Amino acid sequence: MVLALAPPGAARGAPAAATHAAAAPVLRIYLARHGQTDWNAQRRLQGATDTHLNAAGRAQAETLAVRLAGVKFDAVYSSRLARTRETAAIVHGRVPIDSLADLDERNLGKFQGFVLDSDSVATAEYSRRITALGDSLDGGETLEHQLARVTRALDGIRRRHASGSVLVVAHGLTNQLVLKALLGLTWDQANAIVQANDELYLIELGGGAKPRLWKWIGPENLKDL
Prior knowledge:
Strand content: 15-25%
Largest sheet: 7 strands, mixed
Strand order of the largest sheet: 1-7-6-2-5-3-4
CATH topology: Rossmann fold
Distance between the termini: 10 Å
Low-confidence stretches: 1-14, 16-22
Number of strands: 7
Number of domains: 1
CATH architecture: 3-Layer(aba) Sandwich
Number of helices: 7
């Protein structure tokens, strides 16, 4: 089951019905987040820290593989971090995985390793600063810098693939910026996106239409209907 999510001005409907007269090439980017890690389960901020999938994360990746079993991917991309490479390998190990540094998660500076809600004052500081433009989080990375490299990664992918289907497995904050770059979202719109470890998006680009965004709806997220 698929639910269409549309940014302002975007088309709505079912993917199969989108633009009958699509003579122009269409690129379909399937955008997944890595499966769960122990740090996710602990609400511990990972950022650029390299962590691995736990048993639940591997099961999520296996479920995603079933969902995407009928899709013929021209390429599979991940970040360099193990949790995305492991997810991508489980989902579609038949296609070589191209791990891109520009898809790495944001370096969270002093907040990496911090457990949310363990200190209400520090959690409030993190919540305030994580969306603040120009804030490197004391030794980390600004949103603007992360957006620039994510956009660079997407530009390279689109140069290599004018049409077809590609899988991108990245991170919660990285994927916010993937959608910002592809759909022309505002910062507030992008920062409001929360993609769970087992959620899947599809972005369609081209075909003579504005970018279109779809979200997989299964039993685990029927509340989104």
